[in-house]
Specification:
266 residues; alpha+beta; Helix Hairpins; SH3 type barrels; Alpha-Beta Plaits; 3 domains; five-stranded antiparallel sheet; 7 helices
Length: 266
């Protein structure tokens, strides 16, 4: 095996030769680094402006800006190293191996992250919406990158991974701004429907929260062996739905008793 001859030149001569051979490359790399950092700084401002114009979710903006800027900085460093003549084989191998290991270890976390980004961009629900998901019903308290926090109506905090929300059925009960409220009243066949109708109609007039459109509907919903059910359909604001239902039912009972209409079991 041939031996590499020793370099017996003086240290000063070797330094001069190194600077002569590699100095232009290092100078070019320095210029590219300075210009690249300046361009990335401009890109950061442009990104912020573009995201604000598109009204991107505020909780998503910092993360996306960080990912984009970091990616640009990594690409700049690799470009600078190549211009300077540094070998990147080992560097890229280590980065690639680390990326594969991290991907395998964090597969579930990455899935939650991707789902969180989709939720923040597509907006199937927003903070403040009432949703039913994963067997839980409540108000969306916050939407994070990896999970969503829901506060149930009995004041429990439920943390749901975003991958569950992006791959399962979500019922958004407040997105349309209104909901149909259904109330059933069972009476015996001895009670004429014409007696029930004005009682229900008068009850509805006492509630200002009931929406005029679509108009309320009152009719016979179900026929059973021991009586029939009067069905009431009214549209109310989505928020406060349960409170409105409780109040209407309570008032209906009072009105029915006042009208001396007998209900089954009375």
């Amino acid at each position: 095996m041939a031996q590499v001859p020793a370099d017996n030149r003086p240290l000063e001569q070797r330094a001069i030769d190194f600077i002569t051979n590699h100095g232009p490359d290092f100078l070019s790399a320095l210029v590219v680094l300075v210009v690249g950092l300046w361009l990335i700084k401009i890109a950061r401002r442009l990104l912020a402006t573009a995201m604000e114009k598109r009204e991107l979710d505020p909780s998503l903006q910092p993360f996306l800006k960080s990912i984009i800027i970091i990616s640009l900085q990594v690409l700049l460093i690799i470009c600078v190293m190549q211009i300077a003549g540094l070998q990147l084989t080992i560097f890229t191998t280590v980065i690639g191996a680390f990326g594969v290991a991290a991907g395998l270890a964090l597969s579930g976390t990455l899935q939650n992250f991707a789902s969180g980004v989709l939720i923040l961009i597509l907006k199937p629900f927003r903070v403040g919406d009432n949703i039913i998901a994963q067997g839980q019903e409540g108000t969306v308290h916050s939407i994070e990158i990896f999970y969503t926090v829901v506060t149930t109506f009995d004041n429990k905090t439920v943390i749901i991974p975003n991958s569950k929300l992006s791959n399962e059925i979500i019922i958004n009960t407040s997105r349309e701004g209104k909901r149909r409220l259904d109330v059933e009243i069972k009476v015996g066949y001895s009670t004429d429907f014409k007696m029930i109708y004005p009682v229900v109609e008068d009850t509805l007039k006492e509630f200002g929260g009931i929406m005029p459109s679509p108009a309320p509907r009152i009719g016979v919903g179900t026929l059973e062996g021991d009586g029939y059910k009067v069905l009431l359909n009214v549209w109310v604001p989505a928020h406060g739905f349960t409170d409105m239902k409780l109040k209407i039912q309570e008032r209906l009972i009072d009105k029915i008793k006042t009208a001396e209409i007998k209900l089954p079991g009375m």
